Amino acid sequence: SVIRDLGFNAGGVGDFLSELNSFFGTMRLMLGGVGAIALLVAAFGVANTMTMAVLERTREIGLMKAIGATDNNVLTIFLIESGLVGMLGGMAGVGLSLALQRIINQAIANSSQNGERVNFLPLDPSQIGDQLIVIPVELGLGAITLATVVGIGAGFFPALRAARLSPVIALKTD
Questions:
Q1: Can you give 70-83 as a three-state secondary structure string?
Q2: Under 8 Å CB-to-CB from 144, ≥6 apart: which residues?
Q3: What is the DSSP letter of 161?
Q4: pTM of the model
Q5: pLDDT per residue over 29-74, tens digit each?
Q6: What is d(CA 154, CA 160) in angstroms, rounded to the nearest whole number?
Q7: Which residues of 2-30 are buried (b: 16+ CB within 10 A; e: fewer)?
Q8: CA distance 41 to 6
Q9: How distant, in Å, are the alpha carbons of 109, 116, 134, 140 from that of 113?
């Protein structure tokens, strides 16, 4: 700071690292925003799917209640179904991510083995074991868990609606 006060520009690795951290912090926020929007859209999709399932299976719900199913039984059935929809969506997303990870890492490994330098990387890929993209197991499991929880949350109100249906009205519905 004394050198800067004298009118000279001075910089070091610390300045570079702080700028780099600031850039990646901004990227994290942007990608987090995109992820939050995608999660919201997925929640609306699950809620819509479950609402349609309740409407299409109104007679089945009435029949279940007529033979002794309680509101909690019906609620549990639809919550499990919405959780499974969310879980399958999460598994599909993690599977796609792992496939893309493998394709990109393999392309980088192949290009570095052919003696070509990967121009967009500021380092030699062999220094990082040709693994540019790494998805930890905990992240994949966390994503599947989050998708399942979002599915259950999004399916709660349609499941509650199904549980509160009167068996007489449900059986009269076409």
A1: CHHHHHHHHHHHHH
A2: 87, 90, 91, 94
A3: H
A4: 0.78
A5: 999 999 999 999 999 999 999 999 999 999 999 999 999 999 999 9
A6: 11
A7: eeeeeeeeeeeeeeeeeeeeeeeeeeeee
A8: 55
A9: 6, 7, 20, 29
